[in-house]
Design a protein that fits this description.
alpha+beta; five-stranded mixed β-sheet; 5 strands; about 20% strand
Length: about 160
Amino acid sequence: MSVRIRMKKLGRKHRPYFRICAMDIRRPRDGRVLEELGTYDPMIPDTDARAVLNGERIAHWLSVGAQPSDKVRVLIKKYGENGTHLPAQQAALDRLAQSRRRPEPPAPIPKAPKPAPATEETPAPVAEKTPVAVAEKTAEQPVEDSPKPAEEKPREEASTTEQES
């Protein structure tokens, strides 16, 4: 069985995403894989952050005779186990992780305690109630103690209802 390390296309229309896989050479591009070895996302703006490879497993498959495709060969050379762009890739992945983190909300500002009302030891002078002030208050407020007379129907309405029946 011949093994090829190639890309398997995923994603949706106008938004491609690839997995780098070890596959039987006779399988279709998006068919069954032997092992997934990494990812490649061409939509990430930072070029060095696009490919993430498992260099250890790629080295294993290369040692047992797997052949990489042309595009995967370039990615392995740059981002594989002893790749030429590894420091740049690590920096790019760190920047990408920073942009994905949400900033922590600022700590809530403690509210200032409300000032306690000033209590005086001497009571406030009580205004004397004069008969005029008491009379004005009672004139403004209706007296609730007196019973209200029951409302009765006017006699005219009562007589008209008797005539109709």
